[in-house]
Amino acid sequence: MKTVREDGPPAGADPDVARRGEEPERGGARTIIDTRGLAKSYKRVHALKPLDLKVSESSIFGFLGPNGAGKSTTIKLLLGLVKPTAGSGTVFGRDITAGGVEIRRRVGYLAQEPQYYGHMTARQTLRFAARFFYSGPESAIERRVSETLRLVGLDDRADRRIKGFSGGERQRLGLAQAQVNEPELLILDEPAASLDPMGRRDVLAVIERLREERGATVFYSTHILDDVQRVSDAVAILKNGRLVAQAPIEELLTGGTGSAAVYELVLKEGSSGGLNEARERLRAAPWVSSLEENPENGRARWLVGVTDEDAAEEGILRLVLEGRGVRVASFGRKRRSLEEVFLGLVEGGSRDAG
Ligand code: ADP
């Protein structure tokens, strides 16, 4: 799944710089966004503290943080719209300070509150945006506009005036506008923040479709955890201008490598008992680092923190079932919700679910 630019490198591009920055990483996708110590202060406000961020090609990257965390500032820096006070960064291997114009040409950007001419229709708006970039024949523009309308699910409303559009339809039009020129990278600033749950679901579905059908890389900011959990494959979390986590989403939710994994067991005790002995056997295992118990409707729910996943997957059930009187209703690795991870990081809680 690669975004292929049919028109080759833009005129005036320095092929050496482009190549250096766009070399595939060893064993993986190209890095599309790469920042090193990138920072921005406004007088006494440290809007963004030194940030090291890496975004791979074809990922949907959720940039998460509460309001005021520095998300928009980062986006403006990446687009070369504001100048960093320290550090540096590249997008497509282009320096964000020197190469802003080219970066903006190759990025589709959706601002927090896109503005439209209400008397225009969706099709006219897209035609206008497409003409701005496309120099090809009129028929190619029309084809591209129709394709884009279909992609965002506005084909049946293409010729209505925008002023009658719902919030969700306006955001989908914004997505259409951002990608009518087939950009390699979409940067979306809070694309779903102002929408109701249905509008949000539609916008997220469009984002997924963009990746599936176009292989586009999507970098989007949000303060809504649910959205990130639903569509992202990598996430960075920002708090007070500082990066507090950056990882593939699976890694964040399962505890990741290096930190303790947690397994969840739901147990039933027979009339002759057996839970106490099972607990003792587990506690004695050298790879068990914690055991938390919660009674639940006559059953016991145990969270077992471990330092060795292989040993745990081989040993937990064996140890629990070794004696008599205990039945296992369910067993599995516990996935944390992003909310738990986020609150743990953002509120400074150090507990790592085990
Ligand atoms: P977010 O997008 O995560 O809500 P912002 O990047 O907009 O956060 O803002 C981060 C911090 O920088 C906030 O404290 C905000 O008030 C401050 N800030 C942003 N832009 C400016 C500016 N032009 N002048 C002064 N302070 C700013």
Topology (SSEs and partners):
Blueprint: H1 15-22, E1 31-42, E2 45-56, E3 60-64, H2 71-78, E4 86-91, E5 94-95, H3 100-106, E6 107-110, H4 122-133, H5 138-151, H6 167-179, E7 185-189, H7 197-214, E8 217-222, H8 225-231, E9 234-239, E10 242-248, H9 249-254, E11 261-269, H10 275-284, E12 288-296, E13 299-306, H11 309-321, E14 326-333, H12 338-346
Parallel strand pairs: 3-8, 3-9, 6-7, 7-8
Antiparallel strand pairs: 1-2, 1-4, 4-5, 9-10, 11-13, 11-14, 12-13
Helix pairs in contact: 4-5, 6-7, 10-11
This protein binds adenosine-5'-diphosphate.
In short:
By secondary structure, the chain is α/β, with parallel strands linked by helices. 35% of the residues lie in helices and 28% in strands. It is built from twelve helices and 14 strands.
| Strand segment tally | 14
By secondary-structure content and strand pairing, the structural class works out as alpha/beta
CA-to-CA gap between the ends? 38 Å
Strand content: 25-35%
Second CATH tier, the architecture of the largest domain: 3-Layer(aba) Sandwich
Q: In this structure, how is the largest beta sheet organized?
A: 6 strands, mixed
Share of helix, binned? 25-40%
Biggest β-sheet: strands ordered side by side in the sheet = 6-7-8-3-9-10
Compressed to H and E, one letter per element, the order equals HEEEHEEHEHHHEHEHEEHEHEEHEH
CATH topology of the largest domain: Rossmann fold
In DSSP terms (H or I, runs of 4 or more residues), the helix count works out at 12
Dominant shape: elongated
